[in-house]
Every structure is written in C-alpha cells, then in structure tokens.
Amino acid sequence: MSVHLLDVAAKCDEYGSRIGIGKIARLAGVLHDMGKFSDEFQDYIRSKMNTPMQDNQEEPLSKIDHGKIGALYIFNKFHDSCSVSEKILSEILAMVISYHHGGLNDFITMDCQVPLLNRLKPENLDTQYYTCINRFFDIVCSEKDIDSLFSEACNELNNIMRKVKTERLSVSFTLHLLIKHLYSIVIDCDRLDTYLFMEGIEELPCLDTSDLWKNYLMRLEDKINELKAKPTNTILEERIKKLRLKVSDECADFAQRERGIYLLTVPTGGGKTFSSLRFALKHAIKHGMKKIIYVLPFTTIIEQNASEVRNVLNCADNLLEHHCNVIQTEHEKYKLLVQRWDDQVQFFV
What confidence tier does 344 reach under pLDDT thresholds 50, 70, 90? Predict the structure, then answer.
C-alpha cells in the first residue's frame, strides 16, 4: 500500500509540475487511498488473497468507502486556518480525494446544499479514521512531511491566483479547471500505477516520436509522389489533381509557422486528409510535439480517415482509433490507452 501511494504521488507530481501544480497533485496522490488502512479494507484485501474472485462474482470493493478518510484529514487539519489559500486548498484536495471513485460532486447544489461539507461533518469521525491516520504516518510518511508539502502546495495556489489577478481571469472558472485537472491527474496516475503493478512492469514503453514522425512523413511523401505521377483521364480530373497537390504543398509550407490555431477550408474531395496529415507531421517535427489527434464529426468519416492513414503510414498500433464502433473493453491495454491518450495518432468522437 505504501509503495502504491508513494508511486502515485510521484507520478502526480511529475504530471502536475507541467502546469505548476506539482505539489498540489503530489499531496492529493499520497493521501487519496489513506482510507485503505482501515481494518475493514485490510480484511477485504486478505480475503481476496485467499479466495480470488470469480468472473461472475459481484465486486464489493466499491462499497468500502475509503475516499473520505484522506479528505477528512486534510480538511480538518487546514480548513480552520486564517489563511484563505489554506482554506481553499483544503477544500479542493478534500473534493478530489473524497470523490476519486465515482466522479466529482457539485460544490453547491441547486438548493444551495454543499455535499462535500455534509460528507465531512465532524460526526463522521470514528475509530477507523484515527486508525487509518496512525497507520499512514507509521508506514508512508510523517505528519511533518505532509505539513511541508501542504505549505509548498499553498505557494503553487498563490501563484495561480496572482496570475488570475494579473490577467483578469475568472477566479471561479480557474478554480473549476484546477479541480478538474487535478482530479484527472489523480485518476490517471492511480490507474496507471495499478496497471503497471498488474503487468509486472515499471513503466510504459516510450517511443522516440522524433524519428517516428520522420519515418511517417517519408511514407506520406512517397504516397503524394505516387499521386503526382498517377495519370488522369480528363481535363477536369487533371485540374482537380493539381488543386489537391497545391493545397497539400501549401499545408506543408504552412507547417513551418509557429504553434497556434489555424484554419484549413477546402471543399469535399479536396484532399484534406493527406494535406492536414502532411501539415501535422511537419509541424510536430519542427516543434517536438508528441501527439497528433484527429477529432472528426461522424463515425463513418473517422473510420475512413483512420483506414487511409493506417494504410499509408503503416503505423499499426501507434494509431489509436476510439469511437462507438470500436469495442475492446476486454483488453486492459486498450482501456488504459483510451483513458490516457498515450499513443501518437488518435481518432475519436
């Protein structure tokens, strides 16, 4: 248990640091399963080790509420502080930890109730609460470590709020995005660490996207040269061919621009699939980007584009196709990939 919590915390720190919330994320990660130190949960784990669950047996794990313990601890310890940032951070962490199974709840309901406060009422404290805390600090880390980490996390929150004030952003919307992103980080790192443990590996393989993009671009350029050399039967076909190639060349040249949001407007049949892919590959190479994601409106279009890209690039499993017609729920790796967007090229609705 301690290894899982520390590994999840480290992963959360790594992902959170990319947007300046590494310590906030680490704190959520290390506390999210504090409730699993309860006698009830430990008895459950021991029983499963002795009697593995059958495929058709109901899983009672979800009925053991282990999420609220870590939330209760961080909320009770810091919410009465005179510091506004400590109050806000304790609420954010309590929300994410408390509901890391089953989805986030509303902070305020339509009838002005606060579900989180109801969940964290003082009368919810029992002997299991103190048992979990004591075992956590005996096995995982010290209370001094948590205090120090919380202080660093508050500094991160203060940095965010200063930026909000400087750039005149919406405070409530910014905090909303922070909670959503923090929640996603905890869920992702929790599931990833569990998957790695079950597979007996330390980390997922990491592809060298730089060489990958260059190889794919070479294959695409071969396909475009093949289309250039393909003879046409009529003047109209030749004209359409030249227009398609012109669009493709302009997209290739445009890829050298800085990162940003760009619009490509081309009529149906104008070669958008290969032109946009040519831009994407060149742009990814220039700026060291790790992923190419296609978001398309209709399943038939997704399937058609995925098939064309897969055939031309010969990219096999590096293309992750995800939509309602792709059902591979029995494959743990597929489920992990569609939750994490961990492949380089993706098609989804």
Answer: low
Instruction: Identify residue 25 by its one-letter amino acid code.
Output: A
Q: Which helix (H) or strand (E) segment is 64 a member of?
A: none
Amino acid of residue 223: K
- List, in order, residues 6 or more apart from 137 with CB less than 8 Å away: 143
| Adjacency order of strands within the sheet including 319-322 | 292-295, 345-348, 319-322
d(CA 217, CA 117) in angstroms, rounded, equals 54
Work out whether strand 292-295 and strand 319-322 pair parallel, antiparallel, or are unpaired: unpaired
Residue 51 contacts residue 37 (beta carbons within 8 Å): no
What the block records as the tokens of 67 is 């999420």
Average pLDDT over residues 116-120: 80
Q: What is the CB-side half-sphere exposure of residue 293 using CA atoms within 13 A?
A: 12
Dist CA 229 CA 223 (whole Å): 10
- CB-CB contact of 152 with 23 (8 Å): yes
- Of 133, 121, 125, 107, nearest in space to 33 by CA: 133
> Based on C-alpha coordinates, what's the Rg of the chain?
25
pTM over 0.90: no
Task: Report how far residue 279's alpha carbon sits from residue 247's, in angstroms, rounded to the nearest whole number.
Answer: 11
**Token reading at 176:** 């909303």
SS3 for 174?
helix
* DSSP H or E run through 143: helix 143-166
CB atoms under 10 Å from CB of 293, counted, come to: 13
User: Strands 345-348 and 292-295: what pairing?
Assistant: parallel
Ramachandran class of 263: left when φ > 0, alpha when ψ lies in -120 to 50, beta otherwise: beta
Share of the chain above pLDDT 70, in %: 87
